[in-house]
Amino acid sequence: MKPRFTVPITLAVIAALGLSMPARAQHPEEHHSEGPHDVHANQGHVPPAAPPHRDAHSKPEVEHRDGGRVNSAPHVSNDHWYGHDRPNDKRYVTAHPFEHGHFEHFGPSYRYHVERFDRDHHRFYFPGGFSFEIASWDWALAADWCWDCGGDNFVVYDDPDHPSWYLIYDVQTGAYIHAQYMGS
User: Fold this and answer.
1) pLDDT digits (tens, 9 = 90+) for 104-162
2) 147 vs 79, 124, 130, CA distance in Å?
3) Is residue 100 part of a domain?
């Protein structure tokens, strides 16, 4: 009689292969694996662009949902950006815009994973040492994001309404926050 090792051996081989594969760092180059298997928000895809520049006195737009519910949190649904702060919001005024330079690898073609996360200072680092600091007023939105879950879960967009700020979009939740580029 032959021993039945098929299932345990198969599982062991799968586990060994999974552990032996090197972690893929996101280099600043195009990344095209955008499918329903890795994007859970915004109807299964990454938004194509940041919200367009708005009039200085525009109010944050809210999403009206079934049953009269309203979602005013910063998020993207059907490629529409909701909850974006007023363009003339004083919190975004900086004494030295782009003090640490410009982050140039932004937009939906670039997906990133967080290499390091400093919860105490609200900073995160992408491969290559690119670091960002989360806006203090957005920290409550970002504190429970899965910063170290692996996978290319973040997209950076230039903020058209607030010079020297970037929008960090979480592909798992569809939410976004504001952050400043701190250099590499």
Assistant:
1) 999 999 999 999 999 999 999 999 999 999 999 999 999 999 998 888 899 999 999 99
2) 23, 8, 15
3) yes
